[in-house]
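Obj.: predict assembly geometry.
Materials: sequence records (below).
Method: joint structure prediction, all chains together.
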Amino acid sequence: MDFPLSFWDISLFLAVTAIILLVTSELLSPYYGKTNLTINKKRLRNVALASSTLFLVTVAIKIVTIIISP
Amino acid sequence: MRAKFSLTPIGITVLALLLLGAVSLTVSLGYDSSILAFIGLGLIFWGAVLLYIKPEASVSETLLEATLSPSLTTLNQMIQDLGYKGDATYLPPKYFANPDTTKIYISKYRHTSLPTPELIQPYENQTVTRTTEGLLTTPPGIQLSKLMEKSLGTAFIKTELKDLEQKLPKIVIEDLEIAENIEIQEENNQTKTKENPAVPSIETRNITIHAKITKPIYKDVFKDDDSSQIAGTIGSPVCSAIAIALTRATGKPVRITNIRSSEDGNTIEATYMIIEG
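Observations (raw structure tokens):
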């Protein structure tokens, strides 16, 4: 019973969620308008940054794997 | 502080997302289905994100203004009844033994000089001090200025005026969200005062700071009485907090010389004068 998702699948998932979260975070920023939504915008930004960093880490791992593989 | 999980609409949504996600992920393992795994992972992820970013306890602006308004009215009535008609000056930390103290001094009459720190220090721990020359009291923006200081990460007394001018918009707009926008402009003024014709005029250089605040909180707090002394020279808690920040950063007394509010109350323009010497 293996996990059905590959490393690349997880990377794709992270990329899509990171884009959604980053765009949402930017649209909810106090500088651009929609400020009356009472969610914790700082935490949303942190989650967006964390998921985009994780995606970049997966990309870096893949690049390293390609370079070191014979 | 740990987030409390309660059965509010958001709580129910989070619980549903997490449960469905867990079921979908478990089923995906049994059937070896990558689509179900994606759905499960997505539901768990968004459930966790929603739980993490869910709103903190918030109070409506109208309620805030309604609760603050009586204390400001009382302060205003007290100043009027006691007959202190002079300018309100925010005193810097050098006037107090404890550098964390900030008070406003309202003189009995207009255009009188400030008292010396030695005269102020014995009364710094009292909430309101009344003398024949002036009234010493706590400004309405004191707690807000402490929150601003906390957001800044350092005490205002350790900050330069230029730094403060650059960092204040971020604190007000982004960190505390107490206004939609704030524009700060500095102006250097040279004024000549000649009180006695026998002596040469004294040239003083005052720094004037103009702050244009868009959609601040407490904007309607003086809606009923915008000609009061508090509305004119002490300012709303937001204007007062900015005055405290300026007096603590410069180490010089600060006066609010002008407060103008737009008709709809959405824009407030305040002029602060940093008194030299």
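Conclusions so far: The interface with chain A takes residues 28-30, 32-34, 36-38, 41-42, 45, 49, 52-56, 58, 173-174, 177, 180 of chain B (CB under 8 Å).
To do: check interface contacts against the pulldown list.
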